[in-house]
Amino acid sequence: MNREQVTPERVRSANFTPSRLGRRGLDEAEVHAFCEWVSDGLGRLLNDNASLQEEVLRLRERLLDGGKAKSGVQPEDAHVQAVYVLSKAQQTADRYVADAQEYSRELAEDAHLRRDEILREAKMRASMILDEAHTTASQAASATRTTDEPLSGGERQELQAEIAYLRTYSDVCRTHLRAYMESLTRSIEEWERAERNGTGPAKVPPLPSRNAAVMPVPAPQQA
Amino acid sequence: MDEQRLKESFARVAAYGDEVPLFFYSHLFLGHPELREMFPVSMVGQRDKLLNALGRIVSDVSNRDALVPFLQGLGRDHRKFGTVADHYPAVGASLLATLAHFNGTAWDEELARDWTEAYTVIAQVMTGAAADDETLNPPWWGATVVGHERRTMDVAVLRIAPDIPLRYVPGQSVAVQCEGRPRMWRFYSMANAPRLDATIDFHVRVVPGGVISSTLARGVTVGARLRLGAPVGTLQLNMASPRSVVLAAGSTGLAPLKAMVEQAAALPNPPRTHLVFGARTSAELYDLADLEKMAAQWPWLTVTPAVSHDRDFRGETGTVADVIGRRVPLAEHDAYICGSSAMVRATVEHLRSIGMPKERIYFEDFGWSES
User: Fold this and answer.
1) Same domain, B102 and B188
2) A80, A82, A109 member nearest B208 (Cβ)
């Protein structure tokens, strides 16, 4: 009950537990706490009262001073008041502009982060594709090197198949990479258009999915 | 006019900080609502400028050699805002009312007389300079965008054609305002030495949340109209120096330095020049192709790209300062630096720490920070 307002009703209706067996009267701790609460509350009220009294005196003096100089508000004062009102309005406008700028800065920074992430991912994917192509190609090369004997018809055929495979492979690589890059560029352009038109990034078309088949490797041709 | 009294009374007023210009502008607009149109919606930056200018005028009140050119510049510069001599009395009256208000009981007739006298002189110098300038230059230059190239996600290179040729020295910049963004001006450096066809290049980097930079980099297209203020800035190639030159460019801080390279190219004996062009990643070296073409054409020019946040980059990695420290024998060079505040500060500090004398370091702080 500590910070609650002291009211006549609360004081009048205060209830205390009777003392435990062997002692007379009311629970001592409860009574002490109650008195403490009443005295705190009274202290606050007295303080409030004093500051209100001061305020009343101050206002009364000002009123009398004003009355002495001239009746009512002076035109100079009125002008200063008007200046203050306009200043307040200006500060409100300043705050709105600052908020809007802050908001757009945050949006732009978010977009930058997202863009960096997309580019990083694309780069990673590209290097993965190249690595894989490289591995396959060097495997094929080492396979041909192991055969020192003149090529038989069958071997020649096999090798040509291998070359055809590699060509196909690199074609597929390139096509998919290009398609992926193009769709990325398109997404970024859409995104920018949306940004320019003032629609938020929420309405931006989805980016190519991370799991979209970027590079279906052709099944190795078994001779 | 008692200068000491003037300074003391201003110190009393300045203690109220932002409240002072806030009161001043409100007082001015109440009496002359038509003047409000000349200012942007948000007045935050404007208030800082006013307080700084007043502070500078008062502190230099006894130093006429510094004060007069400052006021003349201010007077000329105000032409682009549409300020005319008729506006000065209204401003003076509001200034006096503001000073009286914040001086409180300390304000008396003598102070009022001092300030009236001071403002009369200020207004005379400013309007005089503006009037002289009127015979030579328009209040602002209209210009058309004739080229717009987005070099990276954040950087665009604009080519503009002013209606009337704009005379400037490489290294200088102009305030730019674009259609649809009235009363907002941002400074951009000319990125080329003056051309016969008078076209000018600007390198614009998007500042997150920056209204003008985003508009110029992404919003405008060929045919868009701009307004340019008079050229300003003190970063200039010291032609009298016998030393070689090192140019340190951080991102679009390249613009004024590139203009200086073109200026040097027109000299009979261009100084040996080493341009270090820095960016965070290699993709952000937005003008490298052009710079390398220049270096191939001019034997006295060396261009070194420096990349700070890209481990895969095959060239020099690190900040511009790092690369200069590694590549340039500083004893024989003058250094010119332009870029973000952080880049300029770090580069100046680094050059000082490795023994370059202060008077050989020239720099321009673009005031933006890299995020």
Assistant:
1) no
2) A109
